[in-house]
Here is the input.
Amino acid sequence: QGISWSTVRYMIGEVQYGGRVTDDYDKRLLNCFARVWFNEHMFESTFCFYTGYQIPVCKTLDQYFDYIQLLPAMDSPEVFGLHPNADITYQRNTSADVLDTITNIQPKESGGGSGETRESVVYRTAEDMLEKLPPDYVKARLVKMGALNSMNIFLRQEIDRMQKVITVVRTSLNDLKLAIEGTIVMSEASKNLRDALDNMYDARIPQVWRRVSWDSSTLGFWFTELLDRNAQLSAWIFHGRPKVFWITGFFNPQGFLTAMKQEATRAHKDWALDKVAVHNEVLKLTREEITSSPAEGVYIYGLYLEGAGWDKRRSILVESTAKILFVQLPVLHMYAVDST
Here is the structure.
């Protein structure tokens, strides 16, 4: 009667291996591999799972063992249908974990050497940050812009969150300076100050800052992003609505798109907000080439592709380029349409 391949595929994709798969998309991929591989063609001489991975034709157990020994000790990502860049991501994540472990177990107290102490390094860093930290926002400016405008409501919410970050950072840095000077005691109760001292010395983000802000790879990148986010909000307040928005510089990007939908709904009296959908068009322009705002909707930038490339000439997704993990998208035109 031959082999019941549907039974084999079900046993592999749903029971034996599939029973251990918890993600629906992984289950779909596993069943796809089972349909492609497990059929009558797998007994042909030309069949292989991947280059160099054939089904061995052996007569003795020792021959099977010898074949297994010839297989590579480390499989390349292509064997599993992945892009070669997947190995770079794996190696990078592994290295980051090792370095984080080394940093976490290193001594936290000052050494007895003649070099600069960790307290003096952190004190200098804190002074530099306080000097560059932006001032508090003047919210009276928002009232003049139109308090009931949907975009201005979103702007106020962003400013409130940014003001909280600035206040927390300024307070922490000032208290840290006083603790290093000995004006206040950095006791075990001052857990936030001790955490800030340890993390700033290691160029990492203190936990009290991370809780009210965003994540970043290093303290330097985090602080630079704080200045850039503040610059966008300040320019919006004092110089008017930007021609193109840095959407990844917002705390609530989804709220920004919702405000854009509300703005479009009010402009079209016959539209209903619950029937309005957001559409986008990837342009062939960079941020610097944008000279004016769109007639409707908004221009945004700051989005990146991971696991794919972008053909700017044809405006389509393409395979990733080797050794390039992230690709920045051009400016996108986000606009609302009536879906009724």
